[in-house]
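Researcher: We're reviewing a set of sequences before deciding which ones to prioritize for further study. For each one, I'd like a predicted 3D structure that I can look through quickly. This is S1 motif domain-containing protein. If possible, include the structure in token form so it fits the rest of the review sheet.
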Amino acid sequence: MSLDEKCLLADIVIDNSQDLIHTRRQVEQVVKELSDERNHSVVKTESDSSAKYVLPGDEITSDQTFMRGHGTYLSTLNDDKQLMASIAGVVEPINRLISVRPLRTRYNGEIGDVIVGRITEVQSKRWRVETNARLDSVLQLSGVNLPGGELRRKTAEDEVLMRNYLKEGDIISAEVQNIFDDGSLGLHTRSLKYGKLGQGILIRVSPSLVERRKNHFHKLPIGANMILGNNGFVWISQVIAEGTESGGHVIDFSDIALQERETMARLRNCTLGLAKHKVMLNDTSVSYAYEVSVQLGYQPKDLLMPEVVAVIAEQTKLRLNEFEGMDLN
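Model: Here's the predicted structure for S1 motif domain-containing protein, in token form for your review sheet.
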């Protein structure tokens, strides 16, 4: 081998070594980011204090009595089959079934979920709805309420008038009725509490931060209504009088008072601040954040500053921990 060839081979070896060092540094950076996210993750309780975070390729267990769930696979490299993580997330064991819940993901709907979505297309006998999922959801004409809550078989005339009910750009609340074979969701708005939404603010957060509860429609004592959609879409609006639900067929477009607009803006900024700091969203946490922002004398516009949001989130976590401690006692 000539001297030039030896020098060329040495350069290749050096380049490959540098690439390996660079790749290792990238992996270490990802692990550090996930560790930081874990440290600033949702408010910890007794049930999630021992949560196990994994990266793709990490071993979860070698016990073969466990069943493989979403986000896992069986390694066949060794004689002993090991259950490995295929995604980065939190290990969630349910009896003998082990799954990994991803830290960041699109919405994976379940039957009975309450969602907030936007109409994207009007098709034959159905609407396409953007729900933060991998595929657009479907709202069938047979799954909506007619004006006045009338229940009857839909006719060809109803199909012609579909755009009078819902059109592109309309915001709706609905419930997941079924899941199709391709993974898309089937929706319905047969209850008068669902349907077209009027004036309000729509914000988007991670679906994993919305806590699953029996009720996702909240009339907050601060003077605003909030719908915490399981799909990560949150709707904030003015207070609606009890018993005036119309399924979205009667909408009040009158001017909203300045005080109510300020309340909605403050609530919107508090909700986004909690989501940024990975605090689970429910009516309690959002109300606490709102009250803390008022007590500390911040204006709604101040809640857009990162340092202020950090203070609000930290104080909210402390109040939630105190509240959970009282429940345990």
